[in-house]
Amino acid sequence: MARLPAEESTQPPVHLPDRDQNEPTLAGSARDSGTDSGGASSDDYAPASDPGASLFKGHVRRGTESGFMLYQDLAVAAGSNLPNLRLDLHVYAAKPQDRFALINMHKVREGDSLQGGVKVDAITPDGVVMSHNGTSFLLPKE
Q: What residue ranges do the domains of the chain occupy?
């Protein structure tokens, strides 16, 4: 059976630089160090930060639609002294008196306090809004 000749490309071939198999492809490589000649530096890809968030230096600060910090972000911040919290059960109801949550297996309602100076401010459809040392945060229901 006869083969047909392959079509010739009208575009010049693209040359990709050879890469050493041991060269890292993520952070730590020369490509990420800001020394490449492409004009972009690693600072161009740094996460946005809140200049007033000195507690959260080095951490990406996420918030909720309601504007509260997430517990997971606040707990890892240096100096937060936030106790370990786990939302075991979350019950939201239209009537505030019917709302409750189990946090670390302790039943709490709006206005209650936990050990470690954590106060339950509100139980919302998204989780429990709490406060500690003047900082409000959301313990999400996930």
A: 49-140
